[in-house]
Amino acid sequence: MKKHSLFKVILIVLGALVCVNGVLAIIGNFVKDLEVFKMIPLGDTILNFVQSFYYFFDTLVFVLVLGGFYAVLNKIPAYKKLVDNIAQKVKSHSKLFVFIVTGLFAVLTSATGLTNVLLVFVPFVVAIILLLGYDKLVAISSTVVAMLVGLMGGVFVTFRDANSYYGYAATTFDKFTGIKEYANLVPQLIILVLGTALLIFFINRYIKSVQEKKVKYELNDSDEVLVSEVKGDYKTIKTWPMIIILSVLFVILVLGYLPWNSLFGIECFDKFDAWLKGLSIGEFAVLPNVISGNLSAFGAWASLGSYMSIIVTLFILTLILKLVYRVKFDEVIDDFMSGSKKMVPMVCLIALTYAILVCAYNFGFMSNLITLVSDKLGLNLVTSTLLSAIGTLLHSDLYYTAAGVFSNITANADESLLPVYAMTYQSIYGLVSVIAPTSLFVVFALKYFDVPYTSWVKYIWRFVLMLFLLVILVLLVLSLI
Q1: How far apart are CA 167 and CA 155, in angstroms?
Q2: CB 228 within 8 A of CB 83
């Protein structure tokens, strides 16, 4: 079960969706309230797997490119030296370093909502943590799980507006729900602070258990992650260009993806973009249409696709690394292709999770289920939590979860409780993404770092339970105010 545990569990989820929806469709022939459920044909289920490569092309290519980018990095001595230098400098305070990293990932996610950008830097930080002697479970918790905790308590989490599919309009949970801006600021900050504190407590407790040999997980080392200690005389190798390149990568991606105008009313980037594209010499434009048409202002890069601008940026920086460190072009290509090739199994798993999303979304499974629950049981804290959890499991993408799940919940909800439902959806989406086999974050972390899904569940379920109790407590208080 361990070798292909994640693949098997994802298949189980897909099979359960098809079977449950099929049973409800059959019963719908005799029960009027269930007649809206339609059978998901087996042929469509298989076809949706193929179509998911088209629908989520940028996400899948991003995974391949990220694998190639780090394969090139791992072959550059300066990168190895940089990772080793950082590890050596923080080694005496290694546990504190892990806790700071955990808090930093959580706060950055809450303040920007840019999980796609932060995911780029996860392998780099994980390499440092592993070099400090901690295992991959600690490394994943300090980075990927911390991001999801930050998403649960995210103040500036944005996503594409479900009402503008063919365009791009960034919206927040508050705007999407139609409630007052920052209406949930206090509960968001409470979940962020207490959730991060719980995560640090959980990681610290696990580290102590490992040191006392009370717990042991058989996790294979991964050559793509582990960066060996630099040996020999590397005094002539300069790491400052590598530091600058990685720093520029972070700054450019944050500037590009954070919706400055719609979120903060900052218009300078849009004005500069309009001015630049309007430059001309006589009747001739300085920037041809073929170039200007593919450029977007800082803050609007997501309009080109969630990951396309990251892909282009990684390609450009790979070429810069080749020039700066004088790596042979053939070696860069070989390393890049080798790294991308190793990501193919992950790409197939992600595509399978998106096939589940397409099946559930196209056949309206969640919208029908929400309507049924609303009519028979009514929407309350319990039912909305359960519906949000199921919806997140079946819709791994934030936009489609908002469009297919959250919008249907709010459409049937009491307006006075909209802030509660908004907070419920946001927190449950992040919580379920920590453990759900269909979560992009779980698939990425477990496949990239070679961790069996069964080992992950055995490790993380206690933290998920503690975090769930915290969320329920916050939501109960919010509903009583």
Answers
A1: 24
A2: no
DSSP 206: H
What is the amino acid identity at position 10?
I
Cα–Cα dist 264/266, whole Å: 5
Please tell me whether the overall predicted TM-score, pTM, comes out greater than 0.90 for this model: yes
Please check whether residue 322 is in contact with residue 78, taking contact to mean a CB–CB distance below 8 angstroms.
no
Residues 119, 265: contact at Cβ < 8 Å? no
Structure tokens at 441: 């974050």
Distances, alpha carbon 329 to alpha carbons 14, 55, 321, 332, 341, in Å: 43, 33, 11, 5, 18
Buried b (16+ CB within 10 A) or exposed e, 448-465: bbebbbebbeebbeebbe
In total, the chain counts a number of residues equal to: 481
What are the tens digits of pLDDT across the range 98-138? 999 999 999 999 999 999 899 999 999 999 999 999 999 99
Radius of gyration of the chain (CA): 23
* C-beta separation of 405 from 441 below 8 A: no
* DSSP 3-state of 160: strand
Q: Where are the alpha helices (DSSP H) in 153-235?
A: 173-177, 185-211
Lookup: tokens for 99: 């806790």
**Is residue 426 a contact partner of residue 401, using CB atoms and an 8 Å limit?**
no
* CA–CA dist 79, 75 (Å, integer): 8
The backbone torsions φ and ψ at residue 20, rounded to the nearest 5 degrees and listed phi first, read -65, -45
pLDDT in tens, 403-432: 888 888 888 777 778 889 999 999 999 999
Residues sharing a CB contact under 8 Å with residue 170, sequence separation 6 or more, in sequence order: 158, 159, 160, 161, 259, 262, 263, 302
In DSSP notation, 266-315 reads --HHHHHHHHHHH-EETTEESS-HHHHTT---TT-GGGG-TTHHHHHHHH
The residue among 146, 118, 131 whose CA lies nearest residue 82 is 131
